[in-house]
Amino acid sequence: MKKKLLSTLLAVTVAASLIAGCGAGSGAASPGSDASGTGMPEETSAGTEEVSVEAKENTGEIKTGGTLKIVTGQTPSIVGYTPEITTNSHIQFLRTAYDSLLFYDEDGKLAPCLAESWESDAEELTLTFKLYEGVKFSDDTDFNAEAVKWNIEQYQAAGRTEAANVDSIECPDEKTVVIKLKEWNSASLESIGFFIYYMSPTAVENNGVEWARINSSGTGPFVLKSFEQGVSIKYEKNPLYRVAGQPYLDGIDFTIISDAATIENTLVSGEADMISYTPIDTIKNLDPTGEYVLETNSNGVGVEMTGIIPSSAQEGNPFADVKVRQAFCYAVDVDTITAALGYGYYTVTNQWAAPNAVTYNKEVAGYPYNPEKAKELLAEAGYGDGFDTTFWSPAGSSNWATAICDNLNAVGIRAKVELIDGAKNGELMTGGWDGIMFHYASVGPDLGLFMGRHLDVAGSYYASGIQHPEDCIQLLNDIRIAPDEDTKVAKELELQKKIYDEYALFGKPLYITLIAGLKYPYVQGDNFAKNHAATWTPATCWLDK
After folding, report:
1. What is the total count of domains within the chain?
2. Are 79 and 151 in contact (CB under 8 A)?
3. Which CATH number covers residue 431?
4. Distance between CA atoms of 65 and 62, rounded to whole angstroms?
5. Residues in a beta bridge with 121
6. The pLDDT of residue 55
7. Do 209 and 344 have their domain in common?
8. Beta strand extents in 106-206 (DSSP E only)
């Protein structure tokens, strides 16, 4: 019998999706709903009682019109040619004018967007998508199966990994797309379904790629009105948007500012309604006032983790010994450091997942702060007198690096902080390093996709600096070829335990980075970072003022 993952939605679910738009959920635009998400911290700063505000009760009906003003520090150079937009934080701009086949719901599960249903067949190596009918691109051309095929081919031509596993694409009719994979990989559904955004083939072919980079031609709720790199990005309502009555807003204006203090002042002065990707110092300063709503991720999808990772690949390196890596982990007081420098807003984790994610393994013990245990393990490994090493740190994280090194030095791991710029940090991430560096990772629930970029022997990031235990690589492959979701998750939980408790391979996880929107309570239905840390629902956003 074929092992199939059949995701055919009931008519009532499909109808709800058509009404609400991609991933908005039934409550996203409901009168009186709270769009602030979950995951608020218990404390905003040491010794300070939390003060928070709910998104205020609206007046009973959704108000249409107006322009949402967002200030952000994110600076894209391309806003329209989707295969060349590779930074997660720039998905906020993509989602304003473009759609993907699938989105994420509030529970972190894939849900319909441009595709009303889909079928995954591990034995036949196929993904089959059924598309909604009547969808138009903003240039009034049809979104159909051939448009999907054309867009995936553009991603392939651009060398995007999301489309690398696609062998062929067939279009039996206008609303059916059958994608044949080169090999079965459980991550392909997310890669193709969520990370590919659809442009009008006609618009791009008629106007060229240069035009497409700074213009939009998607199926999304808004159309790019103007783009001034490093200054502003402005959108206006798409009159051809597929959901009747949406978007509610007339437009969305992003103002781009690099200085965190100026971003904060722009919100406080009322020149902006919302900050996207809010700087942590701004959250610390403004959230306790009770005048704003903090929106955060609620399901662990799309979040990022910061940790510290020792090099273990080089023979003779102390960190090549698992006992030294475990001692390294026991030596760092993550709870105290994160509470002090993260102001109580960062969520501590001990593995490659947020605590609310489906791939978070509660059986992972991790390495609670225990300097005596660290000294004991160092002695067992032959380093009773300690050793010298280097901590390579970006200048902006020097306070974190210094605090961590104080802990390490106390047990005999004499780490000296070496400040580096972004270019050098990228060089070490991809080419290897000797000592310690920060570990930045997208810890989305699909470990086959995200952890594989670091764990694979030929992985893109950090792989050159670590060991690659055969049993871990085997589990990674098992995850990728898993025929169903339950099998996949079981293998992912097993890999978490092995990577961290057995090998301490990625060193010490510190915290889940807070990706948040900070807004005035009158901003409703935006769901910033809620369903996926890098996304929002601009179609259902409205202003209750």
Report:
1. 2
2. no
3. 3.10.105.10
4. 10
5. 4, 126
6. 41
7. no
8. 110-112, 115-121, 126-131, 166-173, 176-181
Same domain flag for 211 and 309 = no
Last residue of a domain, one of 150, 185, 215: 215
CATH code assigned at 144: 3.90.76.10
Give the pLDDT confidence of 498-535 residue by residue, as tens digits: 999 999 999 999 999 889 999 999 999 999 999 999 99
Verify that 503 and 354 share a domain, yes or no: yes
Picking from 14-23, 48-57, 132-141, 373-382, which range would have the lowest pLDDT averaged per residue?
48-57
Predicted structure pTM score: 0.81
Structure tokens belonging to residue 451: 């952890």
Query: For residue 169, which phi and psi values (nearest 5 degrees)?
Result: -135, 130
pLDDT value of residue 347: 93
Q: What is the mean pLDDT of residues 202-228?
A: 98
CA distance 524 to 57: 10
C-beta separation of 22 from 104 below 8 A: no
Give CA torsion, residues 432, 436, 440, 442, to 10 deg.
70
- Would you state the pLDDT for residue 87? 82
Provide the strand spans (E) within 258-379: 274-276, 293-295, 304-310, 347-348
Residues spanned by the domain of 488? 304-512
